[in-house]
Amino acid sequence: MTRRLIVGVTGASGAVLALETLRQLAQAKAETHLVVSRGAEPTIRHELGHAALADFSALATWTHSPDNLAAPIASGSFRSDGMIVVPCSMRSLAAIAHGFGENLVARAADVTLKEKRCLVIAPREAPLHEGHLSSMLALARMGAIIAPPVPPFYARPSSFEDVIREIAARLVNWVGVDPGGQMTRWNGDSQQR
């Protein structure tokens, strides 16, 4: 059964996490609906180069404009298995937590919550002030999974790519897609991939 997932990318640093998440979802043969916010576009270009936006679109099954509030994913009648917002800026986090459907990322996340579907948020900010934490708490109380991109050090990553792969694999896993060998699973004292 093909999983249908929405991937929102916002303007926080960490575009490489979104790209790897899309890669893993494509490898798992998931149907993906990608929305890149206006704030994410310059961040992606800065962090990954000018051609990177095309890489995002190439990995996604469908790409939606962040301004298109008439897109299918803006409605609860659109069946999806969940949504990942990676990276999630604090602006987007607050918009999602307080129901401000100002763009398609926030609206699709709002729909995901109201339909009781899995919403995984990967917030990217440090340090956090009380407003950030309040928004995260509000989302957690609504059923969202708050998943800061924290590397699993027990996996003993030996490269930057290992860290990114492991973090993305966890995001994919939390939304219900098996990342297979992309994720190191804890196995007591012995490590297995």
From TrEMBL:
Gene Ontology molecular-function annotations: carboxy-lyase activity; flavin prenyltransferase activity
EC number: 2.5.1.129
InterPro entries: Flavin_trans-like, Flavoprotein, UbiX-like
Residues involved in FMN binding: 11-13, 37, 89-92, 124
Family stated for the protein in its record: Belongs to the UbiX/PAD1 family.
UniProt keyword annotation of Transcription regulation present: no
Keywords: Flavoprotein, FMN, Prenyltransferase, Transferase
Function comment: Flavin prenyltransferase that catalyzes the synthesis of the prenylated FMN cofactor (prenyl-FMN) for 4-hydroxy-3-polyprenylbenzoic acid decarboxylase UbiD. The prenyltransferase is metal-independent and links a dimethylallyl moiety from dimethylallyl monophosphate (DMAP) to the flavin N5 and C6 atoms of FMN.
Domain annotation Flavoprotein: ranges: 4-166
Reaction equation(s) it catalyzes: dimethylallyl phosphate + FMNH2 = prenylated FMNH2 + phosphate
Organism in which the protein naturally occurs: Borborobacter arsenicus
Name assigned to this protein: Flavin prenyltransferase UbiX
Residues reported in the UniProt entry to bind dimethylallyl phosphate: 154, 170
Principal EC category: transferase
